[in-house]
Amino acid sequence: MAGVFGKDPNMKKSNHQELERLNQERKQKLALAALKFNKPKPVAEPTAVDAK
Predict the structure, then answer these.
(1) How many alpha carbons fall within 13 Å on the CB side of residue 43?
(2) Looking at residues 19-47, what average pLDDT do you find?
(3) Residues near 11 by beta carbon (within 8 Å), at least 6 away in sequence
(4) Which of 2, 18, 33, 41 is the most exposed place for a label (fewest CB within 10 A)?
(5) Is residue 17's pLDDT more than 80?
(6) Rounded distance, CA 26 to CA 24, Å?
(7) Are 12 and 4 in contact (CB under 8 A)?
(8) What whole-number distance in Å separates Cα of residue 22 and Cα of residue 33?
(9) What is the full DSSP assignment across 2-42?
(10) Is the dihedral of CA 14, 18, 20, 24 positive or negative?
């Protein structure tokens, strides 16, 4: 919480390039998760039951 209330000397100083890279990674992970979530579920074909 030191980063919220004051300067924390141990907090990593990141430059603009690194922030952009992290945002790109985050967007890519979100897109992959959305693809996985929205993928249609395979429908199992009903098995034929022989009536005697």
Answers:
(1) 3
(2) 86
(3) 2, 3
(4) 41
(5) yes
(6) 5
(7) no
(8) 16
(9) HHHHS--TTSPP--HHHHHHHHHHHHHHHHHHHHHHHSPPP
(10) negative
